[in-house]
Design a protein that fits this description.
With 746 residues, this protein is α/β, with parallel strands linked by helices. Among the domains are: 125 residues, no CATH class; 57 residues, no CATH class. Helices cover 42% and strands 13% of the residues. It is built from 28 helices and 22 strands. The strands form 4 sheets. The protein has a 12-stranded mixed beta sheet. It has a 6-stranded parallel beta sheet with strand order 17-18-19-20-21-22, with no helix packed on it. A two-stranded parallel sheet has the order 6-8. This is Ran gtpase-activating protein. Keywords: Repeat.
Length: 746
């Protein structure tokens, strides 16, 4: 019998004490570790790859993501590479394998714990779903793994996970993370007697590197209507933490004392630069006037966002006064706020009068915002609900906007259809480059036609609840020249001839990048729409909800996705017994030649592992191609693998975004970097360097018979030869002493 691995044996002895439900004895845990070691080694990965302290680049794990993800995917866990080279993120999502491979779950859970406990390169944890960790027997493993991942910097949780797990255990595990920099949570469970609030306050006060905190909603549903529980020390903890630069917090639970401490924190914080406040009740203790007073005396604040607040006349002028006085704020956003700005009985406070002679022309609802445009010279972005009354007032507002060159972006929320037609006309007459975003439903087809004539519509939601309206509304889409995001929801049965109008739009559009199609149709209608999708050349995100259920439509959709050179993300949510199997079977057979699809999201539980595994392998390969290409272009890694990836997907627009992230450059600079690298590969010396044939340039000895060598080949001839030569054609010879001596001789 071979001697036992000491490192694995020590780890296996710890597992039964951690979670007896997972493995009852150390021998069983050791056997599973040996199985994992064998499985990974067969796929070219190493279970015992070490992460050396102080150097994340020495870890082998970033080069073995595909092999590890095949095992971790069983429990809904995936490893992804972060922007910084060498750092990894662990993403937990809803597993679709658990019902079919339950006997493999404990082994994958063990690998998850091993990963977080032994690899310092894991610096981010994102819980998009609970996966198997929603089960009671696996929670202990999860909390212990988080506590042992001492280099964790970013922690994000979704509501699905928090409602299935204990926040108290999470906060206890977080206490042992010395390098935590970011905590993001959309809904925070305050717990029984609000004990979790006190625990969160302890985390905030003790984490000296925490620069971002986002709690969008404190879940106090049983108490929200009767009293405010307070933040239980969170505001005091914020005062003691001087590292926070980005704060998003729900102020609904704050008491008057909390508001006083919080306002003091805004004034005195030397590092707070971005502040987002959310209010989920009608009358919060923290008013907009209080916020404006604190912002006026803030030291570093440059971005302010208020969500769902009530803004009356005094509050609007208080914001205008504070921004004018602070002279630092560059961005102000009022999102879903209720504006109630009326003409006061008296003249506004001194210093708030409008310059010039246009004071009487500006509507009272717009005066605070026009004052901001004219007096806050640092302002770059402004967003607020539009509340004007007549076209004349609108024209004055847009004329004021057109004269302010310092403001880069102004966005408003259009909630009233009655004045939208006049608004679009005024925008056109004023000559401003304002982009009108329409997210509402327009039942009047004539009104819809006028809107498309004057406005630049970029997002649209189309609802069809009457069969007679289907053709007309689908044809209106042909007039949307700038539409980038479209959601189509059909609640009635439509025929193939009615769907042809939508198919024509899908074929003709050149700007649409994201589409969601949600309805139930017959097979013939599905084929009409799929035919339109097959001729589309712009869609990058495709979301299918409730259709393509027949075998024929499923196969056709799979062929469309596999052959597309644009679709990056696919969501397929259909659950009708065995019918979706045709889609997954065809996708698994044909996906191998696709190099553009990067993600697949599905709620179908009837897809067996043998069908879905090949798909996720290809997705992992495509993501690795993108990463290798971006590394090669940005100069982080000069290797033949990166050069081959660039040669293969060099024209993919996704590379530009990835290079921007890695190199922190703008779009034009990223495009120039890609163009330069591609040009180097077209050159003979650059090609040979990338292929590993030469170190600097091609040099050939003179031939005895006088024939020219490769170095003397004219550039035109080389470029002709280069059309038929690829980097993958250059095969590396196995290393040997004879090979080395031959290279020196040549």
């Amino acid at each position: 019998m071979a001697p036992k691995d000491r490192r694995l044996q020590q780890y296996a002895a710890y597992v039964p004490d951690l979670c007896p439900a997972l493995y009852s004895s150390a021998n069983k845990a050791y056997a599973s570790l040996q199985e994992l070691k064998t499985i990974l080694s067969q796929r070219g990965a190493n279970l015992k790859a070490r992460c050396f302290q102080g150097s994340t680049h020495s870890c082998e794990l970033p080069r073995q993501l595909q092999q590890w993800n095949r095992v971790l995917g069983i429990i809904g866990v995936q490893l992804r590479e972060r922007n910084n080279c060498g750092e990894l993120a662990v993403v937990c999502f809803r597993s679709i394998y658990g019902l079919h491979t339950s006997w493999r779950i404990p082994r994958s859970v063990l690998l998850f714990h091993w990963l977080l406990a032994n690899h310092r390169c894991v610096t981010a944890l994102r819980m998009e779903g609970s996966g198997v960790f929603g089960r009671l027997e696996y929670r202990t493993v999860f909390w212990d793994a988080v506590a042992k991942c001492t280099d964790l910097k970013n922690l994000r949780f979704s509501v699905q996970f928090l409602r299935m797990s204990a926040c108290k255990q999470l906060l206890h595990a977080v206490q042992s993370l010395p390098n935590l920099e970011e905590i993001v949570c959309n809904i925070f469970d305050v717990g029984n007697e609000y004990k979790n609030l006190s625990a969160l306050a302890d985390v905030i006060s003790t984490k000296g590197k925490l620069y971002r905190l986002a709690i969008e909603d404190f879940d106090v549903r049983p108490y929200r209507q009767c009293h405010r529980p307070g933040t239980r020390g969170i505001t005091a903890a914020l005062q003691s933490n001087t590292a926070i630069t980005d704060l998003t917090i729900d102020v609904s639970v704050m008491t008057e004392e909390d508001c006083r401490l919080f306002s003091q924190f805004i004034k005195e914080s030397p590092s707070l630069m971005s502040l987002s406040l959310l209010c989920w009740i009608i009358s919060p203790a923290l008013s907009v006037v209080d916020i404006a007073g604190a912002v006026e005396k803030s030291q570093a604040l440059v971005s302010l966002q208020l969500v769902r607040f009530s803004v009356d006349t005094s509050a609007a002028w208080a914001l205008a006064r504070s921004l004018s006085s602070a002279k630092k704020v560059q961005q102000l956003e009022l999102i879903s706020c209720r504006l109630d700005i009326t003409e006061p009985n008296s003249v506004p406070s001194p210093g708030l009068e409008m310059e010039g002679g246009s004071h009487s022309q500006v509507p009272w609802a717009m005066k605070p915002f026009v004052h901001m445009l004219r007096n806050v010279k640092t302002l770059r972005r402004l967003r607020f609900p539009l509340c004007v009354s007549t076209p004349e007032n609108e024209r004055v507002w847009f004329d004021s906007l057109a004269n302010e060159a310092s403001v880069e972006s102004v966005r408003w929320e259009c909630q009233n259809n009655s004045f939208l037609i006049d608004l679009c006309s005024v925008v056109s007459e004023a000559g401003t480059g304002v982009e009108v975003t329409i997210d509402d439903l327009y039942r009047d087809d004539q009104q819809l036609e006028w809107i498309t004539e004057w406005a630049r519509v970029v997002r649209f939601f189309l609802l069809v609840n009457e069969t007679t309206l289907a053709v007309g509304r689908f044809k209106k889409l042909l007039t949307f020249n700038s539409l980038s995001t479209l959601t189509v929801e059909v609640r009635v049965r439509i025929q193939a001839e009615q769907a042809e109008a939508l198919a024509q739009f899908l074929t003709a559009t050149k700007s649409l990048s994201k589409i969601t199609i949600s309805f139930e149709v017959e097979s013939t209608v599905s084929m009409v729409l799929l035919d339109g999708l097959s001729h589309n050349t712009s869609i990058t995100t495709l979301i299918i909800e409730g259709w393509c259920t027949s075998r024929r439509a499923g196969r056709f959709l799979a062929d469309v996705v596999c052959s597309s050179k644009k679709i990056r993300s696919l969501t397929y949510n259909v659950n009708r017994g065995n019918r979706p199997r045709a889609f997954f079977t065809t996708l698994a057979k044909s996906i191998g030649n696709n190099i553009t699809l990067l993600s697949l999201t599905t709620g179908v539980l009837s897809a067996p592992t043998r069908q879905i595994d090949p798909v996720y392998e290809v997705l992992a390969r495509n993501n690795q191609l993108l990463v290798h290409t971006a590394r090669f272009v940005s100069g982080r890694a000069f290797s033949k693998i990166g050069a081959e990836a660039l040669e293969l997907i060099g024209s993919d627009p996704m590379i530009v975004d990835k290079v921007q992230e890695m190199s922190s450059v703008n779009k034009k600079e990223a495009e120039d970097m890609i163009r330069k690298r591609l040009g180097d590969l077209d050159d003979m010396d650059g090609f040979m360097r990338a292929a590993g044939v030469v170190r600097d340039s091609v040099v050939c000895k003179e031939s005895p018979d006088g024939r020219p060598g490769l170095a003397g080949l004219p550039q035109l001839c080389w470029r002709h030869l280069r059309q038929y030569l690829r980097l993958v054609d250059v095969v590396e010879q196995p290393w040997s002493r004879n090979a080395v001596s031959w290279q020196h001789q040549s």
